[in-house]
Design a protein that fits this description.
TIM Barrel; alpha/beta; 8-stranded parallel beta barrel; binds flavin mononucleotide; two-stranded antiparallel sheet; 12 helices
């Protein structure tokens, strides 16, 4: 398949740019509809690009202070490199699972994968359910050709565990991924018109699959934060790592509200703040498990704080979506800006490498 390039110009002229002109909720609510394949992804993307879909609750990083130390080395010596799934990446950053399936998704994933390879950071694709069910073409998920060397993760819902081990295997192998992220989204499901409202037996089913599954499996929330009970379950089972996806960033109660026109704004305060979820995770996960921090991470200082608090890697969703709606160059320049901010935080804390950041923080009372 030919490699496409989207270097100049934005995907939609009406979309708000990062940090600019974010519209609050429209009135009356705008309905975003599925396309003829039943795929809502492109509609979700349009809503996320056009409106303010972040919760008003803060992620908690504003209450975290980095502790300063004397940097007995040169700024140039600072290395942001990190290891992830036996690969070395330029900084501990992964593009959160976002998309795949529709036309707009294709362009977004093309841009993200090209940028991720150029930057040498990790990437996940969005939910592959419709692809595996042959409801949408696979092309937009097949990003390996433009990102041959990065850690790549496939994505399904924990609910899809019901479809069995082969289904999960197909998700990973069809896109030559290094592992799979299973998203855990009970709040999002219950707020959707045709969402899944029965999670009975899912964990027992996953436990069985994990025994013999040959690829690393990660659990992830979608912005409400993984609960302590689930973190404890992950710690006792063969889960390779978790992505906390805490409260403080993109909020699916808000998004579902925009899509269905129902009054879900009330639920945007449900959840565990990202910082709380990071602290809780390290209680249950030993150091050999990956702790990925996400949910409202927006600056290099947030990244440094998450690493200081015990995360190995961070992931970001909405910012990547917005940058990728413009160009590969926008994605690469924004990530380089994040890396520079992270380096300044490392300089401030006297940390020559990312591991040295660990524990260099204080919580404001
Ligand atoms: C448009 C959009 C689509 C998303 N689709 C998925 C998905 O398919 N699978 C998933 O695990 N998470 C999905 N997410 C959730 C993100 O991976 C991430 O957990 C969430 O956006 C919180 O991170 P943020 O505050 O940095 O955006 C999606 C988010 C957005 C904005």
């Amino acid at each position: 398949m030919g490699k496409k390039k989207y270097c100049r110009g934005s995907i939609g002229s009406t979309f708000a740019r990062c940090g600019e002109d974010k519209k609050e909720f429209p009135s009356p609510k705008i309905p975003a509809t599925k396309d003829k394949t039943g795929n809502k992804k492109d509609a979700h993307i349009e809503v996320c690009l056009k409106y303010n879909v972040e919760t008003s609750v803060k992620s908690g990083f504003e209450t975290i202070r980095l502790l300063s130390d004397f940097p007995d080395f040169s700024f140039e010596e600072i290395s942001t490199e990190a290891g992830f799934l036996s690969k070395k990446i330029a900084m501990p950053l992964i593009i959160s699972p976002l998309t795949g399936g529709g036309k707009l998704s294709q362009r977004i994933n093309d841009i993200l994968s090209e940028a991720a390879e150029a930057l040498n950071i990790g990437m996940a694709v969005g939910s592959q359910k419709l692809m595996l069910d042959n409801a949408v073409p696979a092309d937009s998920f097949l990003v390996r050709h433009s990102a041959p060397s990065i850690p790549l993760l496939s994505n399904l819902g924990i609910i899809h565990v019901r479809k069995g081990k082969e289904y999960l295997l197909r998700a990973v192998e069809s896109i030559q991924a290094d592992g799979i992220i299973l998203y855990v989204n009970p709040v999002q499901e219950v707020l959707q018109d045709s969402g899944e409202k029965d999670f009975t037996g899912i964990l027992a089913g996953l436990e069985e699959i994990l025994d013999t599954f040959p690829y690393p499996v990660f659990l992830k929330e979608v912005g409400f934060g993984l609960s302590e009970k689930l973190l404890s379950w992950a710690g006792r089972n063969k889960i390779r790592g978790v992505d906390v996806a805490g409260l403080g960033g993109t909020n699916w109660a808000k998004i579902e509200c925009l899509i269905s026109g129902a009054d879900y704004e009330l639920y945007e305060t449900l959840g565990i703040k990202t910082t709380e979820a990071i602290i809780a995770s390290r209680k249950y996960l030993t150091e050999d498990r990956y702790l990925i921090a996400s949910g409202g991470i927006r600056t290099g200082l947030d990244i440094a704080k998450a690493l200081a608090m015990g995360a190995d890697i961070v992931s970001m969703g909405l910012p990547f979506l917005k940058w990728a709606s413009e160009s590969v160059e926008r994605v690469t320049s924004e990530v380089r800006r994040l890396q520079e901010q992270l380096k300044i935080a490392m300089w401030f804390t006297g940390s020559k490498d990312v591991n040295a950041l660990r524990n260099k923080f204080q919580r404001e009372s």
